[in-house]
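In line with agreed milestones, the collection of sequences with tokenised folds has grown. A representative record is reproduced below.
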Amino acid sequence: MAQTFDECVLSNDWECDAEGKEGFLLTKFFCGHDQICRQPSQMAVERAKENIRRHYAVVGVLEEFSSFLKVLEVVMPQFFRGAQDTWQDLNQQTNLLEDQRTINRSPPSPRIRKIMRERLKLDYQVYYFIRERFHMQKARLGIQD
């Protein structure tokens, strides 16, 4: 039986319980495998940010995927030359983005947004760091949306 995201969060189903085994994923990914990275903490967030600064030339955000490809074309042209054009052609030929949309999707209620922002507060810190860094990279490279 299909349920809304609100219902999933309120019933604490594992798929929607960011505090359970599926939570803290963004921070864990960038933090690494050290002991400090295994439990949600501000120290894990800071380690994740430091790892991003040191080890990743570019980290983009999905909602700006086209811009991400443009940045990659400039920063690593030997690998990504023409990536933006290829993406646009592929999307036009296949309706790729339309085919991936959720049917009958209803946005989360303000109450659920507040609950999830609290549950994901550490990941939000990492996300906002990534997004700000990405925007600064775009500006330095003269890339506009």
User: Anything to note?
Assistant: DSSP finds nine helices and no strands in the chain. The longest helix spans residues 121-141. The two ends are 40 Å apart (CA to CA). The chain has a mean pLDDT of 89.
